[in-house]
């Protein structure tokens, strides 16, 4: 999404993270995780670090920054982005990995609590504007937004809804706008593929089956 | 350390993190953690985000940046800084929190493995220079460096040595230089106080006593 925002063309190489290829092990030996951006022959790892790198290297066609220009707004975006990585991602991943229904319920509730906090963050950050830091998609939109297709996968698999008008009206309207934005459209992976991957992960880990 | 590097004067307000005060709860309601920087009446939270904010807001007397100017070097510094937060900090904190000697041994070994990885990182990043990203203290030096007085506390409490010439020659020489640098001297907390705090934390959590 960040490369698209900057109008940079790239080659996308799919990696099976349940059967890691040599390229991934070579370019991210420390974490062995995707994504990895290879630029000028050297690897960049960790999603948020890659997005900041892209923002610093390419000015983009219209010169728009992904991170806000103001230091306080940048810090706020980084604060909530770190919150997503530290709290949201492990919470919903825990739903898949849970080995009992009780553990799964606990992780669902944890995810709901984190999403409720993000609803408040959106109210504070956006101040009535369309996206987290203004009128166009920025850093925090990308960081929160890349969880949305997983939410859809979790809804299909477990019947839980994390973002909806009744519970999180601001996030629900934002998610709609984000999905239709130039950054996300045609790039965000399909929820079908997320479901397929999640089922493989659960089988591999011996997770509890979906109850419904 | 970052404020000192920029020549910015500040008021330091001590917080007892085992008995959190109203100021901390007011200014960091999400994580309820130190440090918090209050600037222009608004709070900034999370150490690494605060340091980047300070770097962006204050140019410093000599105009020196804390983060490197080059985007790839910035990304590298951020990568290893995230590694310290994600791997090093929980590993050594786990030594204190361990409820059995076996768990403690496991966390000591985990910490040693993470430090060994940082020795390799220092070799790669510094390329023979005095600090992680060049001839003067920068972002990654601060992030790694603020763990050093805890290492000293752990050595006194458990007799384990993480950074020493025999095992990690580059980090050992770097730690010496860092401790004598203008950024760290007179600012890094005393290991005695770290030991005192660690003992309180262990008593509070019902951790296993130190075996030696």
From TrEMBL, chains A, B:
InterPro entries noted in UniProt: Glutathione-S-Trfase_C-like, Glutathione-S-Trfase_C_sf, Glutathione_S-Trfase, Glutathione_S-Trfase_N, GST_C, GST_C_Tau, Omega/Tau-like, Thioredoxin-like_sf
A cellular component term, taken from the record's GO annotations: cytoplasm
SUPFAM superfamilies, alphabetized: GST C-terminal domain-like (SSF47616), Thioredoxin-like (SSF52833)
GST N-terminal domain segment(s): 1-62
Gene Ontology MF term list: glutathione transferase activity
Keyword Transferase: yes
Catalysed reactions, as listed in the record: RX + glutathione = an S-substituted glutathione + a halide anion + H(+)
Keywords noted in UniProt: Transferase
Family of this protein: Belongs to the GST superfamily.
PANTHER family reported in the protein's UniProt record: GLUTATHIONE S-TRANSFERASE, GST, SUPERFAMILY, GST DOMAIN CONTAINING, GLUTATHIONE TRANSFERASE
Protein name per its UniProtKB record: glutathione transferase
Source organism of the structure: Dichanthelium oligosanthes
């Amino acid at each position: 999404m960040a490369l698209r925002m900057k109008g940079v063309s790239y080659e996308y190489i799919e990696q099976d993270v349940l059967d890691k290829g040599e390229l991934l092990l070579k370019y991210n030996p420390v974490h062995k995780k995707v994504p990895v951006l290879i630029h000028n022959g050297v690897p960049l790892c960790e999603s948020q670090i890659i997005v900041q790198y892209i923002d610093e290297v390419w000015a983009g066609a219209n010169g728009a920054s992904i991170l806000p220009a103001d230091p306080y707004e940048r810090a706020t975006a980084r604060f909530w982005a770190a919150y997503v990585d530290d709290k949201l991602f492990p919470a919903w991943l825990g739903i898949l990995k849970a080995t009992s229904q009780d553990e799964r319920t606990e992780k669902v509730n944890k995810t709901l609590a984190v999403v409720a906090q993000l609803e408040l963050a959106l109210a504070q950050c956006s101040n009535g504007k369309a996206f987290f830091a203004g009128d166009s998609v920025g850093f925090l939109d990308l960081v929160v937004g890349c969880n949305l297709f997983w939410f859809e996968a979790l809804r299909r698999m477990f019947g839980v809804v994390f973002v909806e008008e009744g519970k999180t009206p601001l996030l629900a309207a934002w998610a709609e706008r984000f999905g239709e934005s130039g950054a996300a459209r045609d790039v965000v992976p399909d929820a079908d593929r997320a479901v397929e991957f999640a089922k493989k992960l659960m089988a591999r880990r011996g997770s509890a089956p979906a109850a419904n």
